[in-house]
Amino acid sequence: MNLRVKALVGGALLALTVAACGGEGAGGGTEESAPPEDRTIGVSMPTQTSERWIADGDSVREQLEELGYQVDLQYAGDDIPTQSQQVDQMITQGADVLIIAAIDGTALSSQLQAAADADIPVIAYDRLIRDSENVDFYVSFDNYRVGVAQAEALLTGLGLLTADGQPGEATGPFNVELFAGSLDDNNAHFFFDGAMDTLQPFIDDGSLAVKSGQAEIEQVAILRWQQETAQRRMEDLLTSSYNDGSRVDGVLSPYDGLSRGIITALQNAGYGAAASPMSVVTGQDAEIASVKLIDDGVQNSTIFKDTRLLAEQAVAAAEAFLAGEEPEANDTETYENGVKVVPSYLLPVETVYADDIAPLLVDSGYYTAEEVAAGQTD
Ligand code: BGC
Question: Which ligand 1 atom lies nearest to the CA of residue 143?
Protein backbone atom coordinates (compact mmCIF):
# COMPACT_ATOMS: atom_id res chain seq x y z
CA MET A 1 0.00 0.00 0.00
CA ASN A 2 1.30 3.45 -0.77
CA LEU A 3 2.32 5.44 2.22
CA ARG A 4 2.49 9.13 1.50
CA VAL A 5 4.70 10.91 3.92
CA LYS A 6 5.20 14.61 4.07
CA ALA A 7 8.66 15.41 5.36
CA LEU A 8 10.21 18.72 6.24
CA VAL A 9 13.72 18.52 4.90
CA GLY A 10 16.23 21.40 5.09
CA GLY A 11 13.45 23.90 5.65
CA ALA A 12 11.66 22.95 2.45
CA LEU A 13 8.46 21.03 2.49
CA LEU A 14 8.85 18.10 0.24
CA ALA A 15 6.10 15.73 -0.67
CA LEU A 16 7.86 12.44 -0.54
CA THR A 17 6.20 9.24 -1.44
CA VAL A 18 7.50 6.18 0.22
CA ALA A 19 6.53 2.71 -0.69
CA ALA A 20 5.73 0.46 2.16
CA CYS A 21 4.28 -3.01 2.32
CA GLY A 22 0.73 -2.68 3.52
CA GLY A 23 0.25 -6.23 4.70
CA GLU A 24 -2.32 -8.20 2.78
CA GLY A 25 -2.72 -5.84 -0.17
CA ALA A 26 -4.22 -7.24 -3.34
CA GLY A 27 -1.76 -9.45 -5.08
CA GLY A 28 0.61 -9.36 -2.12
CA GLY A 29 3.27 -6.94 -3.36
CA THR A 30 2.38 -3.28 -3.31
CA GLU A 31 5.68 -1.42 -3.25
CA GLU A 32 5.99 1.56 -5.51
CA SER A 33 7.96 -0.65 -7.84
CA ALA A 34 5.38 -3.43 -7.70
CA PRO A 35 4.29 -4.55 -11.16
CA PRO A 36 0.82 -3.55 -12.37
CA GLU A 37 -0.52 -7.07 -11.91
CA ASP A 38 0.07 -6.68 -8.19
CA ARG A 39 -1.99 -3.50 -8.05
CA THR A 40 -5.74 -3.31 -7.72
CA ILE A 41 -7.72 -0.26 -8.72
CA GLY A 42 -11.20 0.00 -7.21
CA VAL A 43 -13.66 1.62 -9.60
CA SER A 44 -17.02 2.62 -8.14
CA MET A 45 -19.70 3.69 -10.61
CA PRO A 46 -23.21 4.95 -9.78
CA THR A 47 -25.60 3.02 -12.00
CA GLN A 48 -26.03 0.80 -15.01
CA THR A 49 -29.43 2.25 -15.88
CA SER A 50 -27.69 4.99 -17.83
CA GLU A 51 -25.60 4.03 -20.82
CA ARG A 52 -23.07 6.72 -20.10
CA TRP A 53 -21.84 5.06 -16.89
CA ILE A 54 -21.60 1.67 -18.56
CA ALA A 55 -19.37 3.25 -21.21
CA ASP A 56 -17.29 4.92 -18.50
CA GLY A 57 -16.89 1.70 -16.50
CA ASP A 58 -15.95 -0.26 -19.62
CA SER A 59 -13.41 2.33 -20.76
CA VAL A 60 -11.73 2.64 -17.36
CA ARG A 61 -11.58 -1.13 -16.93
CA GLU A 62 -10.27 -1.81 -20.44
CA GLN A 63 -7.59 0.85 -20.21
CA LEU A 64 -6.41 -0.30 -16.77
CA GLU A 65 -6.41 -3.94 -17.79
CA GLU A 66 -4.42 -3.14 -20.91
CA LEU A 67 -1.75 -1.73 -18.62
CA GLY A 68 -1.85 -4.93 -16.60
CA TYR A 69 -3.71 -3.75 -13.48
CA GLN A 70 -6.31 -5.72 -11.55
CA VAL A 71 -9.64 -3.91 -11.61
CA ASP A 72 -12.49 -4.16 -9.11
CA LEU A 73 -15.38 -2.44 -10.96
CA GLN A 74 -18.66 -2.11 -9.06
CA TYR A 75 -21.99 -0.47 -9.91
CA ALA A 76 -24.20 0.67 -7.04
CA GLY A 77 -27.66 0.70 -8.67
CA ASP A 78 -28.03 4.39 -7.72
CA ASP A 79 -28.33 3.29 -4.07
CA ILE A 80 -26.20 5.29 -1.63
CA PRO A 81 -25.76 2.56 1.05
CA THR A 82 -24.74 0.09 -1.68
CA GLN A 83 -22.07 2.44 -2.96
CA SER A 84 -20.76 3.09 0.57
CA GLN A 85 -20.57 -0.64 1.20
CA GLN A 86 -18.83 -1.33 -2.12
CA VAL A 87 -16.21 1.33 -1.44
CA ASP A 88 -15.70 0.02 2.13
CA GLN A 89 -15.11 -3.41 0.68
CA MET A 90 -12.62 -2.15 -1.89
CA ILE A 91 -10.66 -0.59 0.96
CA THR A 92 -10.66 -3.71 3.14
CA GLN A 93 -9.70 -5.84 0.15
CA GLY A 94 -6.59 -3.75 -0.33
CA ALA A 95 -7.27 -1.46 -3.27
CA ASP A 96 -4.25 0.67 -4.13
CA VAL A 97 -6.20 3.54 -5.71
CA LEU A 98 -9.91 4.36 -5.77
CA ILE A 99 -11.73 5.92 -8.73
CA ILE A 100 -15.22 6.97 -7.63
CA ALA A 101 -18.20 8.47 -9.46
CA ALA A 102 -20.42 9.29 -6.49
CA ILE A 103 -24.20 8.94 -6.42
CA ASP A 104 -24.51 11.55 -3.68
CA GLY A 105 -21.47 13.79 -3.60
CA THR A 106 -21.71 14.31 0.15
CA ALA A 107 -22.35 10.76 1.31
CA LEU A 108 -18.91 9.17 1.21
CA SER A 109 -16.99 11.08 3.90
CA SER A 110 -16.43 8.12 6.22
CA GLN A 111 -15.31 5.88 3.33
CA LEU A 112 -12.88 8.56 2.22
CA GLN A 113 -11.55 8.89 5.76
CA ALA A 114 -10.95 5.13 5.81
CA ALA A 115 -9.17 5.39 2.45
CA ALA A 116 -6.97 8.20 3.76
CA ASP A 117 -6.17 6.20 6.91
CA ALA A 118 -5.03 3.37 4.63
CA ASP A 119 -3.08 5.79 2.39
CA ILE A 120 -5.23 5.03 -0.63
CA PRO A 121 -5.44 7.95 -3.07
CA VAL A 122 -8.96 8.84 -4.16
CA ILE A 123 -9.82 10.16 -7.61
CA ALA A 124 -13.29 11.68 -7.98
CA TYR A 125 -14.56 10.62 -11.38
CA ASP A 126 -16.73 13.16 -13.23
CA ARG A 127 -18.72 14.02 -10.07
CA LEU A 128 -16.91 15.93 -7.35
CA ILE A 129 -17.02 14.35 -3.90
CA ARG A 130 -17.86 17.11 -1.44
CA ASP A 131 -17.25 17.92 2.21
CA SER A 132 -14.11 15.82 2.54
CA GLU A 133 -10.45 16.71 2.51
CA ASN A 134 -9.63 13.20 1.41
CA VAL A 135 -10.29 13.70 -2.30
CA ASP A 136 -6.91 13.75 -3.99
CA PHE A 137 -7.82 14.54 -7.58
CA TYR A 138 -10.82 15.23 -9.81
CA VAL A 139 -11.24 14.31 -13.47
CA SER A 140 -14.22 15.72 -15.32
CA PHE A 141 -15.37 17.95 -18.14
CA ASP A 142 -15.88 21.69 -18.15
CA ASN A 143 -19.25 21.37 -16.44
CA TYR A 144 -20.18 25.06 -16.46
CA ARG A 145 -19.49 25.07 -20.21
CA VAL A 146 -21.87 22.10 -20.62
CA GLY A 147 -24.69 24.27 -19.27
CA VAL A 148 -23.72 27.19 -21.49
CA ALA A 149 -23.67 24.87 -24.53
CA GLN A 150 -27.10 23.46 -23.65
CA ALA A 151 -28.58 26.95 -23.35
CA GLU A 152 -26.93 28.04 -26.61
CA ALA A 153 -28.42 24.99 -28.35
CA LEU A 154 -31.86 25.88 -27.00
CA LEU A 155 -31.51 29.49 -28.18
CA THR A 156 -30.21 28.36 -31.58
CA GLY A 157 -33.04 25.84 -31.96
CA LEU A 158 -35.56 28.61 -31.26
CA GLY A 159 -33.86 30.93 -33.74
CA LEU A 160 -32.89 33.53 -31.12
CA LEU A 161 -29.24 32.82 -31.95
CA THR A 162 -27.61 31.72 -35.19
CA ALA A 163 -25.28 28.71 -35.29
CA ASP A 164 -22.28 31.01 -34.86
CA GLY A 165 -23.74 32.70 -31.80
CA GLN A 166 -25.01 35.89 -33.46
CA PRO A 167 -28.52 37.27 -32.82
CA GLY A 168 -31.01 35.26 -34.87
CA GLU A 169 -34.04 36.35 -36.87
CA ALA A 170 -36.60 35.17 -34.34
CA THR A 171 -37.81 37.49 -31.63
CA GLY A 172 -40.15 35.32 -29.59
CA PRO A 173 -41.61 35.43 -27.09
CA PHE A 174 -41.09 31.70 -26.68
CA ASN A 175 -42.37 29.55 -23.85
CA VAL A 176 -39.66 27.40 -22.31
CA GLU A 177 -39.48 25.04 -19.37
CA LEU A 178 -36.34 24.22 -17.41
CA PHE A 179 -35.05 20.97 -15.96
CA ALA A 180 -32.01 20.31 -13.79
CA GLY A 181 -30.29 17.16 -12.57
CA SER A 182 -30.08 15.64 -9.10
CA LEU A 183 -29.40 18.21 -6.38
CA ASP A 184 -26.94 15.90 -4.63
CA ASP A 185 -24.78 15.84 -7.78
CA ASN A 186 -22.37 18.78 -7.79
CA ASN A 187 -22.44 18.81 -11.58
CA ALA A 188 -26.17 19.54 -11.68
CA HIS A 189 -25.47 22.96 -10.17
CA PHE A 190 -22.67 23.76 -12.63
CA PHE A 191 -24.86 22.75 -15.60
CA PHE A 192 -27.79 24.84 -14.36
CA ASP A 193 -25.65 27.86 -13.52
CA GLY A 194 -24.01 27.81 -16.96
CA ALA A 195 -27.40 27.48 -18.64
CA MET A 196 -29.16 30.16 -16.59
CA ASP A 197 -26.34 32.69 -16.97
CA THR A 198 -26.83 32.27 -20.72
CA LEU A 199 -30.65 32.27 -20.75
CA GLN A 200 -31.26 35.03 -18.21
CA PRO A 201 -30.73 37.99 -20.59
CA PHE A 202 -33.34 36.49 -22.93
CA ILE A 203 -35.76 36.00 -20.04
CA ASP A 204 -35.09 39.57 -18.91
CA ASP A 205 -35.77 41.07 -22.36
CA GLY A 206 -38.96 39.04 -22.75
CA SER A 207 -37.90 36.85 -25.68
CA LEU A 208 -38.15 33.78 -23.39
CA ALA A 209 -40.85 33.11 -20.82
CA VAL A 210 -40.82 30.30 -18.28
CA LYS A 211 -44.58 29.92 -18.30
CA SER A 212 -44.78 27.67 -15.24
CA GLY A 213 -42.81 30.23 -13.26
CA GLN A 214 -40.53 27.41 -12.06
CA ALA A 215 -37.02 28.71 -12.58
CA GLU A 216 -35.18 27.88 -9.34
CA ILE A 217 -33.00 24.80 -9.36
CA GLU A 218 -34.86 23.38 -6.34
CA GLN A 219 -38.12 23.58 -8.31
CA VAL A 220 -36.83 21.96 -11.48
CA ALA A 221 -34.32 19.35 -10.21
CA ILE A 222 -34.92 15.66 -10.92
CA LEU A 223 -33.77 13.37 -8.12
CA ARG A 224 -31.25 10.72 -9.30
CA TRP A 225 -31.65 11.97 -12.87
CA GLN A 226 -34.64 9.62 -13.35
CA GLN A 227 -36.25 9.56 -16.79
CA GLU A 228 -39.71 8.67 -15.39
CA THR A 229 -39.61 11.55 -12.92
CA ALA A 230 -38.81 13.95 -15.75
CA GLN A 231 -41.65 12.54 -17.83
CA ARG A 232 -44.07 12.99 -14.94
CA ARG A 233 -42.91 16.55 -14.31
CA MET A 234 -43.34 17.42 -18.01
CA GLU A 235 -46.84 15.89 -17.97
CA ASP A 236 -47.70 17.94 -14.88
CA LEU A 237 -46.37 21.10 -16.51
CA LEU A 238 -48.44 20.49 -19.63
CA THR A 239 -51.55 20.02 -17.53
CA SER A 240 -50.97 22.92 -15.18
CA SER A 241 -49.49 25.59 -17.45
CA TYR A 242 -50.34 24.71 -21.06
CA ASN A 243 -54.03 23.77 -20.91
CA ASP A 244 -54.98 27.10 -22.49
CA GLY A 245 -53.87 26.18 -26.03
CA SER A 246 -50.38 27.61 -25.58
CA ARG A 247 -47.27 25.67 -26.62
CA VAL A 248 -44.01 24.70 -24.98
CA ASP A 249 -41.51 25.94 -27.54
CA GLY A 250 -38.38 24.69 -25.85
CA VAL A 251 -37.13 22.63 -22.93
CA LEU A 252 -33.75 22.94 -21.27
CA SER A 253 -32.88 19.35 -20.43
CA PRO A 254 -29.50 18.57 -18.85
CA TYR A 255 -29.27 14.86 -19.69
CA ASP A 256 -30.42 12.61 -22.55
CA GLY A 257 -32.33 10.24 -20.24
CA LEU A 258 -34.41 13.17 -18.96
CA SER A 259 -34.81 14.43 -22.54
CA ARG A 260 -36.33 11.10 -23.58
CA GLY A 261 -38.83 11.28 -20.70
CA ILE A 262 -39.69 14.87 -21.62
CA ILE A 263 -40.08 13.97 -25.32
CA THR A 264 -42.39 11.07 -24.44
CA ALA A 265 -44.61 13.40 -22.39
CA LEU A 266 -44.68 15.90 -25.25
CA GLN A 267 -45.44 13.22 -27.85
CA ASN A 268 -48.28 11.88 -25.69
CA ALA A 269 -49.69 15.41 -25.73
CA GLY A 270 -49.57 15.54 -29.54
CA TYR A 271 -46.24 17.29 -30.11
CA GLY A 272 -44.12 16.06 -33.00
CA ALA A 273 -47.01 15.84 -35.48
CA ALA A 274 -47.29 18.08 -38.55
CA ALA A 275 -49.76 20.43 -36.89
CA SER A 276 -47.71 20.68 -33.72
CA PRO A 277 -43.94 20.39 -34.14
CA MET A 278 -41.78 18.94 -31.40
CA SER A 279 -40.40 21.45 -28.90
CA VAL A 280 -36.67 22.21 -29.02
CA VAL A 281 -35.27 19.75 -26.43
CA THR A 282 -31.60 19.73 -25.42
CA GLY A 283 -29.58 16.92 -23.82
CA GLN A 284 -26.23 15.59 -22.67
CA ASP A 285 -24.07 12.48 -22.98
CA ALA A 286 -24.75 11.50 -26.60
CA GLU A 287 -26.54 8.35 -25.47
CA ILE A 288 -27.25 6.18 -28.48
CA ALA A 289 -31.07 6.28 -28.15
CA SER A 290 -30.93 10.07 -28.12
CA VAL A 291 -28.43 10.25 -30.97
CA LYS A 292 -31.00 8.39 -33.05
CA LEU A 293 -33.70 10.84 -31.93
CA ILE A 294 -31.44 13.71 -33.04
CA ASP A 295 -30.78 11.95 -36.34
CA ASP A 296 -34.55 11.54 -36.76
CA GLY A 297 -35.15 15.24 -36.05
CA VAL A 298 -36.99 14.62 -32.76
CA GLN A 299 -34.42 15.78 -30.16
CA ASN A 300 -32.61 19.02 -30.96
CA SER A 301 -29.12 18.30 -29.68
CA THR A 302 -26.92 16.69 -27.08
CA ILE A 303 -23.58 17.51 -25.50
CA PHE A 304 -20.89 14.95 -26.27
CA LYS A 305 -18.46 14.15 -23.50
CA ASP A 306 -15.99 11.55 -24.73
CA THR A 307 -15.91 8.98 -21.93
CA ARG A 308 -12.84 7.35 -23.49
CA LEU A 309 -10.85 10.53 -22.86
CA LEU A 310 -12.19 10.87 -19.34
CA ALA A 311 -11.20 7.29 -18.60
CA GLU A 312 -7.75 8.07 -19.99
CA GLN A 313 -7.36 10.95 -17.53
CA ALA A 314 -8.53 8.82 -14.61
CA VAL A 315 -6.04 6.11 -15.56
CA ALA A 316 -3.22 8.65 -15.95
CA ALA A 317 -4.03 10.06 -12.50
CA ALA A 318 -4.07 6.57 -10.96
CA GLU A 319 -0.71 5.78 -12.53
CA ALA A 320 0.77 9.03 -11.24
CA PHE A 321 -0.35 8.25 -7.69
CA LEU A 322 1.02 4.70 -7.97
CA ALA A 323 4.36 6.13 -9.07
CA GLY A 324 4.36 8.42 -6.05
CA GLU A 325 3.71 11.53 -8.12
CA GLU A 326 0.95 14.10 -8.29
CA PRO A 327 -1.24 13.86 -11.39
CA GLU A 328 -1.13 16.72 -13.85
CA ALA A 329 -3.94 19.23 -13.22
CA ASN A 330 -5.19 21.84 -15.66
CA ASP A 331 -7.51 23.56 -13.17
CA THR A 332 -6.65 24.33 -9.57
CA GLU A 333 -9.34 26.94 -8.86
CA THR A 334 -12.82 25.93 -9.85
CA TYR A 335 -13.70 22.86 -7.82
CA GLU A 336 -14.01 23.83 -4.19
CA ASN A 337 -15.62 20.89 -2.45
CA GLY A 338 -16.65 22.62 0.77
CA VAL A 339 -13.33 21.86 2.46
CA LYS A 340 -10.65 22.48 -0.15
CA VAL A 341 -10.07 23.17 -3.82
CA VAL A 342 -9.54 19.81 -5.48
CA PRO A 343 -6.91 19.83 -8.27
CA SER A 344 -8.69 18.88 -11.45
CA TYR A 345 -8.22 17.82 -15.02
CA LEU A 346 -11.13 19.12 -17.11
CA LEU A 347 -11.90 18.06 -20.66
CA PRO A 348 -13.72 20.10 -23.33
CA VAL A 349 -17.22 19.26 -24.58
CA GLU A 350 -18.89 19.38 -27.99
CA THR A 351 -22.45 20.19 -29.01
CA VAL A 352 -23.94 17.60 -31.36
CA TYR A 353 -26.73 18.53 -33.78
CA ALA A 354 -27.88 16.12 -36.50
CA ASP A 355 -25.11 17.25 -38.87
CA ASP A 356 -22.43 16.58 -36.27
CA ILE A 357 -23.28 12.93 -35.66
CA ALA A 358 -21.10 11.61 -38.48
CA PRO A 359 -18.00 13.75 -37.92
CA LEU A 360 -18.03 13.73 -34.12
CA LEU A 361 -19.49 10.38 -33.15
CA VAL A 362 -19.07 8.01 -36.08
CA ASP A 363 -15.73 9.12 -37.52
CA SER A 364 -14.18 9.07 -34.04
CA GLY A 365 -15.32 5.47 -33.59
CA TYR A 366 -17.61 6.27 -30.64
CA TYR A 367 -20.54 4.66 -32.48
CA THR A 368 -20.91 2.95 -35.82
CA ALA A 369 -23.34 4.31 -38.40
CA GLU A 370 -25.38 1.10 -37.90
CA GLU A 371 -25.65 1.74 -34.17
CA VAL A 372 -26.90 5.28 -34.81
CA ALA A 373 -29.47 3.99 -37.30
CA ALA A 374 -30.65 1.31 -34.85
CA GLY A 375 -30.55 3.56 -31.78
CA GLN A 376 -28.70 0.93 -29.81
CA THR A 377 -25.20 -0.41 -29.41
CA ASP A 378 -24.25 -3.99 -30.20
C1 BGC B 1 -22.81 13.63 -15.41
C2 BGC B 1 -23.64 13.72 -16.65
C3 BGC B 1 -24.79 12.74 -16.58
C4 BGC B 1 -25.53 12.83 -15.27
C5 BGC B 1 -26.57 11.75 -15.12
C6 BGC B 1 -23.69 13.81 -14.22
O7 BGC B 1 -22.93 13.78 -13.07
O8 BGC B 1 -21.80 14.62 -15.46
O9 BGC B 1 -22.83 13.42 -17.76
O10 BGC B 1 -25.71 13.07 -17.59
O11 BGC B 1 -24.62 12.76 -14.20
O12 BGC B 1 -26.00 10.49 -15.14
Answer: 8
